[in-house]
């Protein structure tokens, strides 16, 4: 799919991006190339391909779920300017 300079300007406006006029040709060429690649990839038959969670057939290494730090809840509660029912009270910022 080939984009025009006008298309790139519309995309930049919608994305609220400022593009220098001298860069529009490069953006037009690059974005057209990306859209062309996506169009080419959409033509590939993937009906018999199983979805994968990872491109490598590996399992995730997991660490043991162990507590490694001391409970400092009360220490932090004492440091807070205002606390009520174990909750930190903060000023209201939204009306």
Largest sheet report:
2 strands, antiparallel
**What share of the residues lie within helices?**
25-40%
Shape: flat
The amount of beta strand, in percent, is: under 5%
Number of helices: 3
What number is the mean pLDDT?
A: 91
Q: Spell the H/E element sequence.
A: HHHEE
Please tally the β strands and state the result.
Answer: 2
Structural classification: mainly alpha
For the termini, the CA-CA separation is 48 Å
Radius of gyration: 27 Å
Which strand order does the major sheet show?
A: 1-2
Low-confidence spans: none
Write up this protein.
With 95 residues, the protein is mainly alpha-helical. It has a domain at 5-42. Helices cover 38% and strands 4% of the residues. It contains three helices and two strands, in the order αααββ. The chain has helices at residues 5-14, 24-42, 73-79; strands at 83-84, 87-88. Strands 1-2 form a two-stranded antiparallel sheet. A hairpin with a 2-residue loop joins β1 (83-84) and β2 (87-88). α1 packs across α2. The longest helix has 19 residues, at 24-42. The model has no long low-confidence stretch (mean pLDDT 91).
SSE topology sketch:
Layout: H1 5-14, H2 24-42, H3 73-79, E1 83-84, E2 87-88
Antiparallel strand pairs: 1-2
Helix pairs in contact: 1-2
Highlighted features:
38% helix, 2 strands, 95 residues, two-stranded antiparallel ribbon, 4% strand, mainly alpha, flat
Task: Give a summary of the structure in a few sentences.
38% of the residues lie in helices and 4% in strands. The protein has helices at 5-14, 24-42, 73-79; strands at 83-84, 87-88.
